[in-house]
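thread: overnight batch results

M.L. [08:02]
morning all. the overnight job finished for the chain we discussed friday. pasting input first so we're all looking at the same thing
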Amino acid sequence: MSDKYTPKPEHKFTFGLWTVGNTGHDAFGGDVRPKLSPAELVYLLGEVGAYGVNFHDNDLIPIDATPGERAAILKAFKKALSDTGVVVPMATTNLFADPIFKDGAFTSNDAKVRAYTLQKTMNAMDLGAEFGAEVYVFWGGREGIESDATKDPVESLKRFREALNFLCDYSIDQGYSYKFALEAKPNEPRGDMYLPTTGAYLGFIATLDHPEMVGVNPEVAHEHMAGLNFLHAVAQAYEAGKLFHIDLNDQNYARFDQDWRFGAQNLKQAFYLVKFLEDVGYEGSRHYDAHAYRTEDYQGVKDFALGCMRTYLIMKEKAEQFKQDAEIQALIAEINADDGSMDTFKGAYSADKAAALKAHSFDRVAIASRGLKYEKLDQMVNELILGVS
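M.L. [08:03]
and the structure it wrote out:
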């Protein structure tokens, strides 16, 4: 494989401990790979050229760890980071695995669960800050229902809002530099999740006490599970100034959450996503929330991680070729050609402009008869991605 697609720290590729540390278990079978320690996973990521590692609190420190065990884990993890140069850009809290969260965390009907959730999250924020994390992700893995008889959705949203307001104030009070990133998912593990899409979260953020601190963390698989176009969710978040983080993986539309290697399923979607991120100059991490196939050993996990990063770099090169392709750019210019005849109607409203527009005569049939050449452009993109010269 070509060395020009070798990942470097400046590419800002990151992985979660839960991604490369996934042992291949699923609902139908147990582990196929031995469990590695957090420190061992950092060394693995350093070996494949990753920039950063992210973690849930309990990826790093088991929920029932003793103080002595906690100290030993942190010592080994810090040494691995120092040895490899791998950094920690993002942290998050596991609010879904332990049985206490079986009916949600921030939205639980039980006040004791909601209070424990705040406690656990504050402690996890402290842990992330200890390693220099600047983005804090919230994925509401159990924030939802199987039956609408069980929870009031309005009250649940109020509870979630109250918790985020509390945690924003805690971050400010502690002097942390966190930006909060909310991650949507339509379903699984709950039958239906609250705030199921990135667009839903963008609306919710406007209702918070500190909306400037809170953005989104869109994930490829989660939007695809809802049958949506991921690029459009990312573009909306970026245009709103709320693209604080991003999760890259792949997904066959309308399936369970597959978390495949980036580009494993939808190469054209991967191309347009990379093109967008590079075109707008997105400066955040390119985080891979994905897992190696159950078929793999740890050499296969390394192949998976390298594949995620290499596909991004290949698509980045293709995006540059798109910009430099004279035939493609000429066709785009033709499609978007503007003869200036509508200039008088552009821009802000005025009464005179509205009156002139109402009086203007359009040749509707002639306008509609124009072919737009989208078939030709789309095929040219296909051939670019496929490497046809």
